[in-house]
Structures are given as structure tokens and as C-alpha cells.
Amino acid sequence: MNTTTHFPNRGNTTNHPVKLMPCGTMSAYRRHYYRGEPVDALCKAASRKYYEEWRDRNRETNRSYHKEWSARYNTSQRKFEKRLKKYNLTVEDYAWMLYHQGFACAVCKSTEPGGNGNEWSIDHDHACCPEQGRSCGRCVRGLLCMSCNHGLGSFGDNEDSLRAALLYLEASRCLIGVG
């Protein structure tokens, strides 16, 4: 059996004895991966087992690394900037909207944003740019408290459903007064 191979990508045209590890080993996984070859199920299983064992051996190191990373990079300021970027807003745009609304919800005029992060929800027209995964910025309607944002979201921004809900509330008020 010939155990020599040719490495055309490396410019090596001489024959060298090569001992290839069988599939199902981490070495074989790396060989497939770095050559751009399809990785078979045995090699994937070997890779998964290797990294699970590595994670078990290095659990504390891994935990402290992630804790340090979160403390450094996952701050509330960073989350806020990420939200603004998603809606294509600047800090000045956000501040102007809040000022223009009297530092209150655009719907109920509550001065408390509510929710876990205690941040105002950025309301936008979902029909404007649904496939982009982020807003163009022109469809942002205002800043809402968590309750109003959930309420509008429950109605799917459908004006007819909102009118029907308003009529229902007005009609039920009359019924309660009769009884």
C-alpha cells in the first residue's frame, strides 16, 4: 500500500510518507475542516466530545472570562446604543423626541417608562421596513411606556381593531351604569 501523497496547494511535488488519522478523531476533523472538505458525522461527534471535555476541564476559567467580558462590554450604555442603531436614530434624535413629548409616553403621558430596563420603547411602523431587520428611521413614531407599547403591539398596529376596542369600552361603560 502506498502511504505517500502529493500536496499541490503547498507547491510540494515530492512524495512524503503521510499518516492520516482515521475519521472520528479530532485530527481528522481538523483535516477535513481546513481543507474545505465535508465533515462526516464521526468527525463532528469527535469535535463535539473534545470541546465538551475542554469546557469541563476549563469551567472556572471560562466562567471568569465571560463574567469579565460581560462587565466590560455588555453595559447598559452599549445596549442603549445598539437599540438606537437598530432604529437608525442618534442620541440627539432620541433626546429631541423625549423633549418634544414632554418627557412622557406619547400615548398615556406617563412619566415612567416601566419594564425591566426602565427604558422607553421606540415605537415604529412595522409595515415600513419589515424585511430589513432594522428600521430606516423615518418610520419611528415616538417613545412609549411599556404598557402602551404592548397594547399597540397586541392590536398589531391595526386602527380598525383599536377603534373596535374603544367602542367596546364605551359601550361597556353604558351597560355597567344600567345594572
Describe this structure in a few short sentences.
This protein is mainly alpha-helical and 179 residues long.
Strand elements, count: 4
- Average pLDDT metric: 81
Structural class: mainly alpha
Question: How are the strands of the biggest sheet laid out side by side?
Answer: 1-2
Description of the molecule:
- It is a single chain.
- This protein is mainly alpha-helical.
- The chain has 2 domains: 17-70, no CATH class; 76-178, His-Me finger endonucleases (His-Me finger endonuclease fold), CATH 3.40.1800.10.
- The chain is 51% helix and 11% strand.
- The protein has 7 helices and 4 strands.
- The protein has helices at 26-35, 41-57, 59-73, 76-86, 91-100, 146-154, 159-178; strands spanning 4-7, 12-17, 121-124, 140-144.
- The strands form 2 sheets. Strands 1-2 form a two-stranded antiparallel sheet.
- Strand 1 and strand 2 (12-17) form a beta hairpin.
- The longest helix has 20 residues, at 159-178.
- The chain starts with a strand and ends with a helix.
- 7% of the residues are buried.
- The mean pLDDT is 81.
